[in-house]
Amino acid sequence: MNRFLKLASLGAFVALAVSAAAPSADAQQYRRQGSVVFVTPNGEILDYVPSGTGYARDRRGNRVLVDPYGNIIATEARATGYYPRPPAREVYNNDPYGDDAYGDTRYSERGAVTGSIPRDAAIDRQPLDEQPYPQANDDYASIDQDQQRPEVTQPRQPEPVISLKNKSKTEIVALQVFLDRAGVSPGAIDGHMGANVTKAIYAYQQMTGETLDPNNTDAILEQLRMSGGMPLVSYTITPADAAGPYVAEIPEDYAHKAMLTSLAFTSTTEALAERFHMDEGFLKEINPGVDFTVPGTIIKVVNPGEMKSGTVARIIADKGKKQVFAYDASGTLIAAYPASIGSNDTPSPSGTVTVERVAFNPGYTYNPKINFQQGANDKILNIPPGPNGPVGTVWMALSKPTYGIHGTPEPSKIGRTQSHGCIRLTNWDATELAKMVKPGVTVEFVD
């Protein structure tokens, strides 16, 4: 079968145009501070120098602000002539592992840098056996007061950027599904060639020893046919899909969260997108005008294949790449996942720890006496479990208190945003990994 027929077979499921992301105008909202301004990688202007940062020079000799790990958070520029238009994004794109480097600007890694504590920051949990349902213990990192600030170092060199040659969204979906089935997760499948896909390609090559050409759609489609079929398939919405149970919305206030019986999905599209490893917006995009609440409705979904199996003996959490690697006892890579690992305010630890326990469908305990003050809440709150809970559907507690590997209620942001010190994966990736680990598995944080 020639290339035209293969692509036509793939295109029969969906035909989508690739739209360019609109540039951000946020930079115009900041006021001028002196003769110079500091511009973040996504084009925003800082109106002050954040605490905990240092000065350095980039390769072009520009003065830059760097965080304690050496990551460039802003570049100095002359204020004269800067307003009203921000500079071109690529001039200030210094994050080698950010999505902007790969043409996907939908999710900002940094935004305006502040020293404030996020509203969903560190939260304490009680032991699992003291709760009415499984609880995640110590989800978000609490930083020791005597923690030493690491020396500022230059970021390591990333792998070369991988470019696609005039590939349609459906062809990129085929690539994402191929990687997902191989056990090197591209995150939420959405038809975009972002950093998560690039990282997965390099992980695939590390796992197999084979060079993957992402532009060879013929070969990718042939492999998909032999490993479970086409990347997009038809699915009929069942009465159970339509029935849920669902919740109307997920409140932000923890006291209101605690009043719910579960933090379940809010809609059929959210539930189906997670089941098929998809971005919810992409699911709606390839099924225009569909009422997902009607049983019997036939829709198009991603065909991700079977869950990866094996026994994990060692995990590496690469903070620079925002990626987790799982190895067996022989040192063979058996799975890789995009991850959100730490932030400037609550960085992840360094060194090696171990997995202490695994909890599926964990609850969440908020303790204002130990952690931050959330709204007017001044009492311990037991927040029920569910995929929209703060730790998603899985909690893998680590031997360093308050740290763990867990899921998330926002899968499309994994690898594109920061966490509060823990290792955050999509719910499906966290579940897959949790089923392959046991207490005692080592987790090594590398910079």
From TrEMBL:
Belongs to the YkuD family. Keywords: Cell shape, Cell wall biogenesis/degradation, Peptidoglycan synthesis, Signal, Transferase. PROSITE patterns: LD_TPASE (PS52029). GO terms for cellular component: extracellular region. The active site is at 406 (proton donor/acceptor), 422 (nucleophile). Pfam families: YkuD. Residues 83-140 are annotated as: Disordered. Residues 313-446 form the L,D-TPase catalytic domain. GO terms for biological process: cell wall organization; peptidoglycan-protein cross-linking; regulation of cell shape. GO terms for molecular function: peptidoglycan L,D-transpeptidase activity; transferase activity. The keyword Protein biosynthesis does not apply. Residues 1-27 form the signal peptide. It comes from the Bacteria. The lineage of its organism: Bacteria, Pseudomonadati, Pseudomonadota, Alphaproteobacteria, Hyphomicrobiales. This is Murein L,D-transpeptidase. InterPro entries: LD-transpeptidase, LD_TPept_cat_dom, PGBD-like_sf, Transpep_catalytic_dom. SUPFAM superfamilies: L,D-transpeptidase catalytic domain-like, PGBD-like. The keyword Signal applies. Pathway: Cell wall biogenesis; peptidoglycan biosynthesis.
